[in-house]
Amino acid sequence: MKYHCIALDIDGTLLNERGEISRATREALHQASELGYLVILASGRPVNQLIPVMRELGLNTPMVCANGAQNWLSPEELLSEYKLEAHWVRLLRLMAEENAVPHWGHAKEGSIYSHTGLSFAEYEDATWFSFAVESRDPDIMTSIRQSVNEWKDQVEISRANPYQCEINAKGVSKATGIAELAARHGISMEKVIAVGDGMNDASMIQAAGLGIAMGNAEDDLKRLANLVGPSNSREGVAWIVHNYLLTDNVREELLR
Predict the structure, then answer these.
(1) Fewer Cβ within 10 Å of end Cβ, the chain: N or C?
(2) What are the angstrom distances between the C-alpha of 250 and each of 89, 243, 256?
(3) In the chain, ranges of CATH 3.40.50.1000 domains
(4) pLDDT tens by residue, 50-99
């Protein structure tokens, strides 16, 4: 199978353990881009937090933001966005406050974090994209997840790590965002390589033609992936690009 696109999660995948894009990763993705492969960044981050990563990478790439709630063809061109009803944000926020756990949300008007002390009332009518809570207390997270799972027919539920619970509008995921962006370039999902490390990457890992879990990924994600690559501390993304994009291109050139 020849792939035409690689979609990359950011934290724990594109970024190494120091939160940096390594030289080997940057060079590999630049080579892939120069050969015509589409690079898509796919993150739970909002667009204003994803653009600096794109700038550091040095490529003007499409971006899946807030787990697919906003999808950008470029920093200047928004393709689509999907609103999360404030009702669900309010319920999860109150649940977080009752349990005294950190929480945050991303909206068109901006992002709020519980530690900032911003008044929730100011954002009551915001255009919400996603909302999340986090706790390292397993009893608290189990209780919150049990409550949130009762909403599964109304919202999309995911997590970036085992300590989180995050919601988006129903049917919104990294997979749907990648599919929309890739389609604008004439690329089907079977021609996409998707790479991630957390369970909010599960949708794209399963929908892509080749789903790859990083070596540092959650075990649950590794079980869903087609294969497991090296970790983000061992140039995992560069290894994937060289073995599944650049190698195929070099092989074709040698056969001509």
Answers:
(1) C
(2) 49, 10, 10
(3) 5-81+173-255
(4) 999 999 999 999 999 999 999 999 999 999 999 999 999 999 999 999 99
